[in-house]
Design a protein that fits this description.
With about 290 residues, the chain is α/β, with parallel strands linked by helices. Helix content is about 45%, strand content about 25%.
Length: about 290
């Protein structure tokens, strides 16, 4: 090794990225199957190598320092290159066939196209069939062997699903929408069954807040159109808020806190090595909020 140069450990970098994305290094320990002390050791090792603190306390959580923000950009690029190299070597091993995946509408027009492109470059002999559908239908399709993999919001009653991420939920409204105190809250949501609708109505009922269905649709575009038109408010993940809409903060609008919702991966028992390779890449994308 050239004198003065230090090779950053790939596992340590992945711990750093996952812990930051999850907002907790304790959660990173669970995700990585390591003890909290081992994850803390990873962080200390990385700070020793960099020679600067990478995180600092803010309230109950941790935030990145300036050095941490700088390293994070490089860490993501290093891990992306590592994962792409792994996929490329898999391609040399001769993977061929097809994989059938299902994803929620939230992701179909965001990270999915780039994910599919990366996978096809690494595995040109593999055909990917992607399906965008309701969560319940996709989870059932995995169980029936119609899909190899599917991502859903919530478990859809399937206990064998793998929770891969938690996303904070928010009340979302048009920029000029105003909540009228004393009147039922107008809700815009997907047709039932819908994990977001269930979470919203359960939170309102628990808080004793009256509500009414203002608009129901099977399309995410329909949800956003109705909210933009001022027909009501909706519940969705905070990282999915369109730039022309706004989050209604619970205290300001007298609305209950919605907590977070799990993103769950369902895998077919009869899936192939190709499906597992796609799942690895998919999980890396899902666990990084900046990619969504």
């Amino acid at each position: 090794m050239v004198a003065g140069l230090i090779n950053l450990d790939m596992d340590v970098l992945r711990t750093f990225v996952i812990g930051t994305d999850l907002g907790s290094f304790a959660k990173a320990a669970d995700r990585l199957g390591r003890s909290p002390s081992a994850v803390s050791l990873h962080l200390r090792k990385l700070e020793d190598q960099i020679g600067q603190p990478l995180v600092r306390k803010q309230g109950r959580g941790l935030v990145l320092t300036e050095a941490g923000e700088t390293l994070m950009g490089y860490a993501r690029r290093i891990l992306d290159l590592n994962d792409e190299a792994r996929l490329a070597l898999g391609a040399l091993a001769g993977l061929e066939g097809w994989v059938r995946v299902g994803v929620p509408q939230d992701f179909a027009e965001t990270w999915l196209p780039s994910l599919l492109a990366r996978f096809q470059r690494a595995h040109p002999k593999v055909r990917v069939e992607a399906r965008v559908d309701r969560g319940a239908a996709m989870a059932d399709a995995v169980g029936a062997g119609v899909l190899d993999l599917a991502l859903t919001w919530g478990s859809m009653g399937k206990p064998d699903g793998q929770v891969v991420s938690e996303r904070r939920l928010a009340w979302i409204a048009a920029a000029d929408h105003r909540i009228v105190d004393g009147e039922p809250l107008p809700l815009v949501a997907f047709d039932a069954p819908c994990a977001f609708q269930s979470r919203a109505t359960e939170a309102l009922d628990a808080a004793g807040r009256r509500w009414r269905h203002a608009f129901s649709t099977s399309s995410l575009l329909g949800v956003w159109a109705a909210v933009r038109a001022g027909l009501g408010v909706t519940a969705r993940t905070v990282d999915a808020i369109p730039s022309d809409l706004r989050e209604l903060h619970s205290g300001d609008a007298l609305l209950p806190d919605l907590g977070s919702l799990a993103l769950v991966l369902h895998r077919s028992p009869s899936r192939t090595a190709i499906a597992d390779a796609f799942a690895d890449l998919l999980l890396d994308a899902v666990r990084a909020p900046d990619d969504l």
